[in-house]
Amino acid sequence: MVETSSIGIGLDRPGTTSLRAAFFSVWFVDLVATIMFFVVPYAYELNPVTVFLHELFGLAGVVLAAVIYAGFVIAIGYVLSRPFDIAFVAATVVLYAVFASNNVVLLVSREPLLTPLIP
Predict the structure, then answer these.
(1) pLDDT (average), residues 62-84
(2) How far apart are CA 50 and CA 2, in angstroms?
(3) Which sign does the torsion angle of CA 45, 53, 30, 80 carry?
(4) What's the sign of the alpha-carbon dihedral 34, 102, 73, 46?
(5) Is the peptide bond before 41 cis (omega within 30 degrees of 0)?
(6) pLDDT of res. 113
(7) Dmax (CA) of the chain
(8) Where are the domains of the chain?
(9) In sequence order, which residues have a C-beta less than 8 Å from that of residue 102 and are 6 or more positions away?
(10) Residue 84 half-sphere exposure toward CB, CA atoms < 13 A
């Protein structure tokens, strides 16, 4: 279903409903894990934008960073045409799932699922 915005641009929701739900599910898990990185003493966040916003606004800055990232993904998905939008959102879901899984494993076991390639 193509919706027309007030400025005349045709917008088509990226992917399917289940794909969008998967994106928001793994995005939320990653958000919670990232918030935990600022709470536990043995893990830390590597993303400089998230760290910067945390220093400015505290944990609300972490949420703001996550909302900005999700906004970029959704905006890019709206701009891309099919089937590129589906492939883009699906690739984002896979990446978020890997990163969120690594973050959760790190928080639970104190050892990352994915070890850094550079020692």
Answers:
(1) 87
(2) 34
(3) negative
(4) positive
(5) no
(6) 67
(7) 52
(8) 19-108
(9) 112, 113, 114
(10) 6
